[in-house]
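Chapter summary example.
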Amino acid sequence: MSDMSSFVAAAALIADPARGLILTALLDGRALPAGELAYAAGITAQTASSHLAKLLDGGLLAVETEGRHRYYRLAGGHVAEALERLSGIHAAGPVRRRALGRQGRELRFCRCCYDHLAGQVGVAVTRGLQERGYLEPAPEKRFAVTPAGRAWFAGIGLDVDAVRPTRRGLARQCLDWTERSHHLAGPLGVELLHVLCARGWLRRRPASRAVEVTPRGRAELQQHLGVEESSPLAA
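The structure predicted for these 235 residues follows.
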């Protein structure tokens, strides 16, 4: 299959509204059974089965079998990145938009982008890391970790040297589709989210991409990185 025909096939799969909802439900990196994905997409189990088969064949999903149960997840971070980038494409010029509901405000404030931190908090954390000289922009949309950055990450329990980079590097710049700025992705971004949750600064919500910033987390993020954004939910 040529690059162009592969692009067209993937675009056609994503363009279907039900399949789009299925893919969106998996953006937080979890693996979900067909029943939950059918519910998320508002379709029957039989219809979901057909859509899941097409997404598997198209390379957008992977499946894991546990006993009699099958769990579906995105085929990888490259699929999540593509979906996030597509979500940020809008028509030029002024566009009338509905006001965000509670769930939309939660996701914009702080969420998972597949397996790393995104939203207003994710962008603010990344900005703080750069302003303090812990991260520096690098070629090919990457971040370089400075010696001061390695020391800071070690101070919160993250050994940068123990994180295995992928072929795309250790730390990657990911364009946040709601904030139009970059947040930290790649293996370092994955480990940072894990550590911040383990330290009780953040809390991932079950069955949601939304991430909560705990009271302790607000204080620590402000002290360490100057993150002062208040939750839009407080308004």
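To summarize the output: The chain has ten helices and eleven strands.
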